[in-house]
Design brief:
By secondary structure, the chain is α+β, with helices and mostly antiparallel strands. It has a domain of about 90 residues: Defensin A-like, CATH 3.30.30. β5 and β6 form a beta hairpin. The longest helix has 15 residues.
Length: about 140
Amino acid sequence: MDFKSREAYEKMIEEAYKVIPETGYKQVSARFNPPTVRIFYQGKNKTVILNFKEIAEYLNRDPNMMRKFLSLELAAPSSPSNGRLILHTRVDETTLQNTINYFIKRYVRCPVCGGYDTTLKKIGKNFLMKCEICGAESPTPPIK
């Protein structure tokens, strides 16, 4: 094989791409499957998230931080109860799931590589997200 010709070079590149495993966002997101929110309504004005602790553990985030975020985003007071979260208002399941997805986008997903293996450190009033995949450190907005 003549390695000086352009055709030989392009053929070699094509063969190399065939052996390299596909990486990137698709693989990262395929293995990241947070539990979907499970709720029930207690009376007229209370929404109970049954698997709140499970979701917080899966996301590797402090349940108190998530509780505060959900309370502020949904403008509803909340209280923890044995791995559950009680929101003192009626919230439909879709709105709750969308709010948790927004939390994931802001406080779990790495803005650099799109990975979900991150840790959160509190520095003063602000948070710093460190990605375990790419090593990037990104500031995240504080929860007020």
